[in-house]
Amino acid sequence: MVDFEKLLYQAKLSEAANRPEKTFSLMEQIVKSKKEDLNAEERQLFHSSYKHIITSIRASCNKINEIYEHEKKKESKSLKLILKLKENLEQELKETCLRMLDLIEKYLVNKASSPDSRVLYYKLKGDYNRYLAMFFSDNNNYSSTALVAYTKATEEAESLSCINPIKIDLALSFSVFYYDVLKNAEEAINVATEALNEGIDKLEKIDDQDMKDATASLQMLKDNIDNWTKGKVDDI
Fold first, then answer.
1. Angle between the 40-74 and 115-135 helix axes, to the nearest 10 degrees?
2. CA-to-CA distance for 31 and 222, rounded, in angstroms?
3. CA–CA distance from 32 to each of 36, 145, 171, 216 (Å)?
């Protein structure tokens, strides 16, 4: 019999020790073994630990792409070596994204028991397809799947407060998807502006425990809106 309390405690210890791979491995065991939906604490550990992992891989892919494009212009003799590393990193990114998407499809969405969890899972489905679409632009399936997932998450989020951190993060991700993947700056700004204005109007009513997360996400929305008008955006 699976000892969920022990696994969760080990995951929290791993998170405190800044070991996201170990944290996620433990949370993955919980996801695959638990018959009911994850609770709020489990959801937070599950997605935040994997976000650390994918963020590192995406940063590596972005950096090697910059180097590749720079050396390509110079017709560098090392281009083949750089290309090989680029392909390896992109394959690692692909496998990492597909691992998360497999867990969402097989174990999470069907057991989602609250609007918060449904919104999070569909948002994550959108996010990880968005990451794939950014690096594998020849495959439109990733982009279309992300759009469907974000749209579904937005529908599920209608019942949530406009200052719910999950709902704000959804608007943040969806707007970045419009800007970076669909190249639709106008819709990106519309989505971000609506969420920002609604959130600011109700910010004083938020619980103290959610204040920090909501405020940080609202600030990112504002920064992105400002940057998009100047033609650049901070990645998330």
1. 10
2. 34
3. 10, 23, 29, 32
- 101, 145 in Cβ contact below 8 A? no
* 72 Cβ contact partners less than 8 Å away, ≥ 6 residues apart: 79
* pLDDT score for 208: 63
Cβ atoms of residues 181 and 133 within 8 Å? yes
Secondary structure of residue 54 in the 3-state scheme: helix
Mean pLDDT by 10 residues, the chain (236 residues): 92 97 97 96 96 96 94 86 95 97 97 96 98 84 96 96 91 96 95 92 68 83 92 58
8-13 long-range contacts, Cβ below 8 Å, gap at least 24? Answer: 8/41, 8/42, 8/45, 11/45, 11/49, 12/45
Whether 38 and 110 have beta carbons less than 8 Å apart is answered as no
Q: Considering the entire predicted model, what is its pTM?
A: 0.91
Residue (of 96, 90, 164) closest to 128 by Cα position: 96
